[in-house]
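Entry for the shared binder. Reason: the reviewer on the internal report wants the predicted structure included alongside the sequence.
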Amino acid sequence: MRHFVIPGDKILDRQMRIENAYVEAGTTHSAVLGFYDDERNSIIPLEGAWKPRIGDLVIGIVSSVGRNGGTYSIDLTEFISGLVVAGKFSTLDFKEGDIIEATIQDIEHKNLALLEHPKALKKATMIKIKPVKIARVIGRAETMIKQISEYTGCSMVVGKNGLIWLDGGNVALATDAILKIEREAHLSGLTERIKNMLEKESKR
C-alpha cells in the first residue's frame, strides 16, 4: 500500500537504509515529498533535483572543446556540468553539439562530474523528463524499459540526469509511453498499464 508523505514524516519505527529517507532517533523518516510503498519499503519522490552519484549513466551534449582537443565540457543539466579528459592514448574526437553517453567517475564541488567511458551517440530523438522519474522509466530489473523497447523496436539510452535518447522503431509510441510514466510514476499498477497501452497502440 502507498501513503503520501512529506519531508520529516516517520515511515518506520526502526532504522532502515532507504533511498530518499533518513534515520533519526532510531526511526526512519521521509526526506522528500512523495509516496511511501510499504510493501517494497521504497519512497517514490514527486519532485526533486538530480543528485549525481558515482556510477550513474548520463547523457550530455558537448558544450566546448579544449584548445588541444584533450578536454571536453559536457552539459548534463542546467546546474551540473560534466568533464571528459582524454587519456594519453585516447582516440576521442568530439565536437561541439555532439551527444554522448558516459558514466560518472567522480564528483567535484557538487556541480562538476568527471566522466569516464564516453561514447558518441548519433543524432536522434532526445526527450527530457524529471530525473526523479527515471527509476520508474527503467523499472525493477529494467522491466519497464525492456517492454518499451520490445513493443516499439526502439533503441534507448536512459540517463540518470533525465535525458533519454531514442532511435529507430516507433519513436512516437515510445515517447508517449515515457511521458505517461512521468505523469503517473506515483500510481500503482503502472507497469501493467504501460504494457496494455503498448500492446494496443502497436497493433494499430
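Summary line for the report: The mean pLDDT is 90.
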